[in-house]
Amino acid sequence: MASQIPTEQWAQVIEKTGGPVQYKKIPVQKPGPDEVLVNIKYSGVCHTDLHAVNGDWPLPTKLPLVGGHEGAGVVVAKGQLVDDIQIGDHAGVKWLNGSCLACDFCQQADEPLCSKALLSGYTVDGSFQQYAIAKAAHVARIPKDVPLDAIAPVLCAGITVYKGLKEAGARPGQSVAIVGAGGGLGSLAQQYAKAMGLRVIAIDTGDEKKKMCLEQLGAESFVDFATSKNVVKDVQAATADGLGPHAVLLVAVNEKPFQQAAEYVRPRGSVVCIGLPAGAYLKAPVFESVIKMISIKGSYVGNRKDSAEAIDFYRRGLIKAPFKVVGLSELQMVYDKMHRGEIAGRYVLDTSK
Ligand code: 8ID
Ligand code: ZN
Ligand code: ZN
What we know:
Layout: E1 8-14, E2 21-27, E3 35-44, H1 47-54, E4 65-66, E5 71-78, E6 90-93, E7 96-98, H2 104-107, E8 118-119, E9 131-135, E10 140-142, H3 148-151, H4 157-168, E11 175-179, H5 184-195, E12 199-204, H6 207-217, E13 221-224, H7 231-237, E14 247-250, H8 256-264, E15 270-273, H9 286-291, E16 295-298, H10 304-315, E17 323-327, H11 331-339, E18 346-350
Parallel strand pairs: 11-12, 11-14, 12-13, 14-15, 15-16, 17-18
Antiparallel strand pairs: 1-2, 1-4, 3-5, 3-9, 3-18, 5-6, 6-10, 7-8
Helix pairs in contact: 4-5, 4-10, 7-8
The structure holds nicotinamide-8-iodo-adenine-dinucleotide (8ID) and zinc ion (2 copies).
């Protein structure tokens, strides 16, 4: 088995912050005792990867860096301590590449909060290469009847929005506004929300995204933030009684909606912040926040159980979000489109091209 693993592979490498990414051959690494080597077949491209290229966040990346954290593939090698995942199993390299498993947070299944967490495509090399390493305890277990191209976006976008919807606390029959609905996280959020019995108001811009949200993803209404004269009024008017959505999931990459959500959320409602626009601040009027008793919170990826559940939603046929497959060599084109806000849904890279 090991003899089939090449010594060199194709990868997309960031040499310096600001990019561009370079498509080139680099060595294949060997997994450590508690790690697996995954032959990545497909990898989704998340906006987080673009933040990493641009050095947007107050957390430095490793350099040079191989980005990517929605990698789906096949286990081809494992360290000697790994016994609960086998060579040939399908596995996902997700944002949380590893964590200590011993700290206060890890013990309570809050492993994304672990101060020793390793982040794929950020603090360790990720899935924009043909062979990626991850801690065996953290790789997602992907059932063999699940297609590896379609499951790739679930490995970050799906897990994250599923967790965010749980954090929102909205119950079946209630409404959720998804802000940034036409993007990668937003398109999956609509499908998870619908599967959880929630009624969806999609907020984004442009006819392509509007059509996708209303005709493919199950949104009941669409508010175009760029053409609406009054987003707050339009979102409230989209709810049955005009009082606003019970929850708001913010997955946009823009500060403004983070300041608007508290205005249109329903009294007792919750605003869940997920998107990470560079340098942005949350702002809400104290008076209205208090007398409406609203909750404003952050939500960050998901733990191993959330990951398994999010994959199971897909396996049961509940999640169908559009994605486009292009070669790994075309990553820069995907970043350019993402930067211009032109992607409806998700791009997935085929690492064989
Ligand atoms: O764990 C987390 N919290 C987590 C996990 C994964 C990703 C956070 N993220 C973050 C990413 O780093 C990024 O900042 O979520 C954000 C969204 O990631 P994405 O879905 O991969 O991005 P995208 O596909 O580019 O979609 C963004 C959408 O937002 C819309 C755009 O039109 C696009 O469709 N949008 C923007 I920009 N401004 C908007 C506005 N004012 C807006 N939609 C509504 N109102
Ligand atoms: Zn991501
Ligand atoms: Zn820990």
